[in-house]
Design a protein that fits this description.
By secondary structure, the chain is α+β, with helices and mostly antiparallel strands. The chain is 55% helix and 21% strand. The longest helix has 42 residues. Belongs to the ABC-4 integral membrane protein family. LolC/E subfamily.
Length: 396
């Protein structure tokens, strides 16, 4: 025969109070609602922030080389043997020699600074998926084209921050080239700053054949940068150094991480306030149930039994509120992810839907913290009930 557990029975019974104890019942209900709102909001907000983080990370990874290799001397001769060594690693998808120069792009009386990337388009470079149009001329970023008021087919003047020696001294390299394509990464800063041109066209105008200053390395898995970095450290000559996409954007990702932590702490305060509501509710319940506790003790209940009743009640309230909050957060996250409930201006965010990425780790972690806080909040009233002077109560 199954043993009757009076602790569980009384913990559940005390939650659904009688008519004369409506205040306690209402307080418990408000605690559950507060916990549900706090948990739901925390799951949803962290899911949205995580979605934005992953979206930005994917765009940064897609629009930049995963690893760039430079030379301490600046420009250097194109060494195809070195490129072959780098590409020999099974984690390396491709290696692209490039010449990157700062320049001013001018047209229609308007000018804008740009980072001009001389690349070999015949080797299908990493940015090819973001380029619309032909690549036999200059490819300008979408926002850069707007800034100087040009469209595909028009000519622009490119003035490099590089000079060629002449009889009159050094003269900046400047040339006209037709706009044949548009670079559209979906990142405003990149679309305003970057432009691309065939490497042989740039060599011809700069008169620096087979000279490069960057080796771009793309990986099959961009998160293998540390493993490939160890490989590069062994094969690269001493005058070369490399930087990964994570190092290039370290400050940006650190800021996003700190923002997520700060927002999590702020929303966690809602759950903490709800836990205090539970503590107040149980404290009131202990004061109301003084006679019941005295009778239980006189019937043989120990201090541990009395304490367990109120801890279990806090656990039940926390568990119910957390489950409702989980359902609330996951449901709202699913709706925002798959339906246009909230529309974002595309010209500002380059997306129309709010990106939501709720992971199981977040949900489980938030749920454990929420229930744990509720149990901690019940310790004080439970301890107070277990230390009550029963003899005095019975005398009264």
């Amino acid at each position: 025969m199954k043993k009757f557990n009076f602790e569980n029975f009384l913990a559940i019974k005390y939650i659904s109070s009688k008519k004369e104890e409506k205040l306690i019942s209402l307080s418990s209900l408000l605690s559950i609602i507060s916990i549900a709102i706090g948990v739901g909001a925390l799951i949803l907000v962290l899911g949205i922030m995580n979605g934005f983080d992953k979206m930005l990370e994917s765009k940064i990874i897609g629009a930049n080389p995963h690893i760039i290799i430079k030379n301490f001397d600046g420009t250097f001769n194109l060494d195809r043997k070195l490129l072959g060594k780098i590409k020999s690693d099974k984690m390396v998808a491709n290696v692209y020699p490039s010449l990157v120069e700062q320049c001013i792009v001018s047209a229609n009386g308007q000018s804008s600074g740009s980072i001009l990337n001389g690349v070999d388009f015949s080797d299908k470079p990493y940015v090819e998926k973001y380029i619309k149009g032909r690549t036999n001329g200059i490819v300008l970023g979408k926002e850069l084209m707007k800034a100087i008021g040009v469209s595909a087919g028009q000519n622009v003047r490119v003035t490099l921050a590089y000079s060629n020696p002449t009889a009159m001294g050094f003269s900046p390299v400047s040339f006209e080239v037709p706009v044949t394509g548009v670079f559209d990464s979906g990142m405003y800063e990149y679309d305003l700053a970057f432009s691309y041109i065939p490497l042989d066209v740039l060599w011809k105008n700069m008169q620096t054949y087979d000279q490069i200053n960057t080796i771009a390395v793309n990986l099959y898995n961009p998160y293998n940068i540390n493993k490939v970095g160890s490989f590069l450290g062994k094969i690269l000559p001493s005058q070369y150094y490399f930087v990964t996409w994570a190092q290039m954007n370290k400050n940006f990702f650190t800021a996003l991480k700190l923002e997520k932590i700060a927002m999590g702490i702020i929303l966690l305060l809602i759950i903490i306030v709800a836990a205090f509501d539970i503590m107040n509710s149980l404290t009131m319940l202990v004061m109301e149930k003084v006679k019941d506790i005295a009778i239980l003790v006189s019937l043989g209940a120990t201090s541990k039994n009395i304490k367990s009743i109120f801890i279990k009640q806090g656990l039940i309230l926390g568990f119910i509120g957390t489950i409702i909050g989980d359902f609330l957060g996951l449901s709202l996250g699913y709706i925002l992810k798959h339906y246009d409930i909230v529309s974002l201006p595309k010209q500002v965010y380059y997306i129309t839907k709010i990106p939501v990425d709720i992971t199981l780790t977040y949900v489980v972690g938030i749920s454990i913290v929420s229930v744990g806080l509720c149990v901690l909040a019940s310790l004080y009233p439970a301890s107070k009930a277990s230390r009550m002077n029963i003899i005095e109560v019975l005398r009264q």
